[in-house]
Here is the input.
Amino acid sequence: MKPGWILLENLVQNRLGHATFGLIAAFTSLAVVVAVFTDLGLTQYTVQQLAADPRFAERNFPTLLPLRALLTAVALAVLLALGAALGYHGAQLGLLAAVGGSLLLTQYGQFLRGPVQARQHFNTDALLSVFEKLLALGLVAALLVGGGLALRSYVGARLAAAAFTAVLFLGLLRRLFGPLPHRRLHWPVVRQLVRGSWPFAFMTVLYGINERVDMVLLERLAAGPAEAGYYAAAYRWLDASLMYSWTVLPLFFARFAHASARPRELRQLLWVGQRVSAVPLLLLVAFVLFRGEVLFWQFSHSTAPELARMVLCLKLLFLNALVQAFFAIYSTLLTSTSHQRVMSWLAVLSIALNISLNLWLLPRYGAVAAAANTLASAVLVSGGYVWLVVRRTGVAVPWHLLARLALAFGLLCGAWYAVQASLRLSWWLEAGLMGVVFIPILFGTRLVSWRELRQLRPR
Here is the structure.
């Protein structure tokens, strides 16, 4: 689904223009920030409690369902009030309501999937998780093919997909679990639920703000919404590349938690996770640094300066992916060994730095500054992760592995530069050649060994 959405959104942005799409991206980011605040961590808390105690639904859903519906309505009202405070008015507020309503309905649908996840219906949950995206993708693709794509039809298609999916999820829950209990809010129960969900809310709010605030500030502070469009075009590729990390790191989360009382086992897991989480991203980052322009092949209506600006943003953002490749595993280690509180304060520091740099640099440098500020925040947080691992976990940081990863990346970039300087290859031949060249580099730097590969063979 992710590759399909990236290619589709590129076409939509090319058709609507950078300024229009930048406004949509800013509204989406603002809605995400508000939605994260108003969820209060209830979605994650509900999944956790349902998995541990099947009777949680019977006791608390009569209050949870109306509470979550009320929070969705409150979030929309807060979103519009915040939009007005930021200077949006008239038709812009109507567009904000449609974009925000779509995202809030999607979030409500995620809450409704909680019982499915908790009851271990993983196949059903997997289908539900992609249904709305698939429906929206189909509607938007139909608009593109039929020539009816415009700002209102695009936003309307996404809103219709989110509303239909939320209603479908409600019906499916009734079929799977019987009539859903529903009553007026019982405030003692509400206070108990919010008290339990608050730790989830705090972490989600911090990371949700840090990821989304750039787009909102960029649209408001830069010369125009087109700058937000340039940044959005580059950021969606970063978001897609980090799907690898979001897939791999949770696998190590459970292993770290299981071995939390055994430092030696933690160290061995960290050494494995360091390489598994980093090596594929090294090749991807090198590709973007040397051939990033090919990712914007769909932007036929963009000028050369616009394309150059998007490519520069892309390269800066993928340096952020490089930092993630080296240090995201330390965040997983800390979270799984109960260091969430100090990590939250580190996230607060990162947000403060990010917002301060944005207020200072965005009016002058626009999208490029937003990308550079994201990189600066990532470097700060990553340094904090390493410091916390050293001070709090008793696990030795594998500096030798970090050095080998840096050496492998340097050799790959050096070889890529030499190939570009001496040969004139198509981008796909060049990328394929460098993928082959990367293999002996991995063996030469001892990031991969034949002994480890033989251990992976089935016996």
Notes: The first helix runs from residue 2 to 16. The chain has a mean pLDDT of 85. The chain is about 85% helix and 0% strand.
